[in-house]
Amino acid sequence: MSGVLIAGTASGTGKTTITTGLIAALRARGLRVAPFKVGPDYIDPTYHARAAGRPCETLDSWMVPHAALRDLFARATASADIAVVEGVMGLFDGRTGGGEAGSSAEVAKLLGLPVILVVDVAKIARSIAAQVLGYQMFDHDLAIAGVILNNVASDTHAALCTEAIEAATGIPVLGALRRDDGLRVPERHLGLVPIIEGRVAEDFFAAAEARVAAGIDLDRVLVIARGARAVEGTADSGLWPAEPVRTRVPIAYAADEAFSFMYPANLELLTAWGANLLPFSPLRDAALPDGARGVYLGGGFPELYAEAAASNGSMRESLRVAAARGFTVYGECGGLMYLGESLVDESGRAHAMAGVVPLRSSMAQRRLTLGYRLATARVDGPHLAAGQTVRGHEFHWSTLEAPAASDTSAYSLQARAGGDATAEGYASANVWASYVHLHFAADAAIAPRFVAACARAH
To answer: Which terminus of the chain, N or C, has fewer Cβ atoms within 10 Å?
Structure first.
């Protein structure tokens, strides 16, 4: 299997644009490209999926056990010619400053992928060689096989940087991209604007493909990619059923502009364990899909569509009825906000939400909450047993107007093992809502347990 990992020296070096353009340019050559993103990101993968014409899988080596990570990678690349993986932050940035867990470097080594390093040379010339040399020397077990220059000012500038890097490190410079405001994509408080909103112009993808095809030596990239080590899946991960599951359980999942944060693997695992997934729009559909026996509300931007969500009273009523009838209802982050009683937007205006859980969210005094979490279920849930701990992630600006009551909270959360624990979320007999995002491959029991919980609903 051919593959490369596109890493950066830091966030903001342009690796998302370059990765998107590279995927599109390789696909234009007739190659089947399997796209991936390191880390807990939901938005950047939408760009890679659009360029590749297939889902972009998430590779998070802290949330997901390493055997399961290899299994997911092998499964997603089985029908591809080449894997293109975008890293997260800087190449060596992970969960902590003291180790590589969760970093692009760790993922590259786990999957046997050569690294192509993107460097921003907007305000530097020969000194960039010292930076690349430092990255080369930092971890001798990691192969940095090529460098791409971004934001070069001229051909002369590119030549100066190339000469310095290759002389100091022996690493080939594979090409350069000029400074180009046309390659900027819209951003807001959680990063780039997701593709599903339709605000990212087709011109961006065409420009990214054209710039990469013209500025980067694709033939040399392919030679480097062929140096990837073969990775095979293993039954030891326990992620997939040993035999196909014939029973189909109808489970509705939210999928529209307000709710698009859902790892593709979560849906794939639910399907493998017997779910018949039924997409629906909380913004536009009048009710949950007919026959649904469970509801999965992922994250997204309900705060930007609060008025539309509030005006769809029939959908909110449909959710309340489903929850009252005992259907399994599971919400993460944006799903938690929508399942609550109300959502206060940045202007201070309150919008009625589904009213399934007794919590109120607010953007009026927004505060960033970001980081990995150890989440221990306080009670039995649709996906975890009481006392079970799973690794997850939080990333939100909204707050709850009142903290979760300990007697109805879903999780005890810790930022690190042995740290202080806080009660978070809401849980009842059949409803689970939390700010914590989970990758269902974090524990092989999550998907089958969730499908079974939905199957028990009447």
So the answer is: C
Q: Residues 238-287: pLDDT tens digits?
A: 899 999 999 899 999 999 999 999 999 999 999 999 999 999 999 999 99
Domain ranges (residues) in the chain = 2-225, 240-455
- Residues 383-436 have pLDDT tens digits of 999 999 999 999 988 999 865 566 899 999 998 888 889 999 999 999 999 999
Spatial strand order in the sheet of 328-332: 275-280, 249-254, 294-297, 328-332, 431-434, 426-427
* 56, 161, 333, 454: the active-site residue: 333
CATH architecture observed for domain 2-225: 3-Layer(aba) Sandwich (3.40)
- Yes or no: say if 111 and 3 are a contact pair by the CB < 8 Å rule: yes
Active-site residue, 56 included = no
- Residues composing the chain: 458
Q: What is the CATH number of domain 240-455?
A: 3.40.50.880
pLDDT, tens only, 99-130: 899 999 999 999 999 999 999 999 999 999 99
